[in-house]
Here is the input.
Amino acid sequence: MFAMSWRLPLFLCGSVVLAPANGNNQRFIKVEWSMLIDESRVERLVVHRVGNQARGEPLQLSERASDVDDDVSSLILSGYLRGVVSDKKKHQFFHESDLNLNEIYHYTRQFFRGELDFLALSQRIAKHLYARSQHPNISAGDLFIILFSGLSDGERELRALGVFKSEVRDDFLSVVESGEVFDIRHASGINPKLIDKGALILESGPMVYAVDRGGQQAKFWLEDFLKAMRVPDANSSSRMVASVVEQLSEEIADPLEQARFKDEFLAVCETEEEMSAGQVSSIAEKFVGKEQVSQAFDNAAETYGFALDDEARLPAQSMAKRLEKTLSKYGIGHGISVLLPSGITLKNIQSQDDGEGELTLVLKLHKRD
Here is the structure.
């Protein structure tokens, strides 16, 4: 009995609470914000050069702020600022014991309170980055510290500090006119629209937009230098929980028990508009050990860069799409799986091997109420 797979919609919605991915008891405030940058301005800028300490490369600190004309300011606003402000890049500073022990958060709070001038702040940030640049794969680069003003959260005007590291220089061709002759020259420079590593630190609290083009290969920017954790949004939360459900489903060896797990999970989704991470855990613990469930969530937290509070309400539009095949696919033993249409579940399996290489499988299916 093979059948085509139909979509089975799940509807979960609500809010999320950020919790540390390492499973300790610290909790963070719920973070929701949007940023308006149309009226933003570049107030000050300092550039330092940060090498790789492990390779013996130096740290070169500037002794004054750079001059910024209108053209440079326009490039910075359209490239660096717009390139880092995105819902997908929302993070929050954290520390295992005390948020004030987070160096970047502490230094920037001192500046915003007027206890530290801009040049001294930029030098402290550069020194902190240099101290964290120990891995041989970390590239040397130019570090831009930028003070922005004129940003808004919709209610008030805010300042923000931009921290951008440029590790890659692009090659450019420029056309030089000399009388009636046009020559081509080579130039090397920084493309502000391609951010290698960046952060926008807001004046209003422990909020930061952060990006690292190096991804998994260069976690030090987020984890070691900024020590910032991603703020889960609706899409990332549903994807994370979907990955947990997929992993736990695969760990249930008995096909009928796996079917019961999926049925119970779907029953909650079909009768309730919301589901919490704690509910997912409670359902899963009936079929696999509590430690397995905890480990699955820990693995997901490590992958996605955040953990969900047990009471977090989960949106599920995107999760439904990701779980469509998982919830319709049933392993029936012997390395064989079947896809069942929506509303049909696996009730029983009978297997007969005649000993001569012929296998007979009889599936008893059940229509859900």
Q: What stands out?
A: The chain is about 30% helix and 25% strand. Residues 1-33 have pLDDT under 50 and may be disordered.
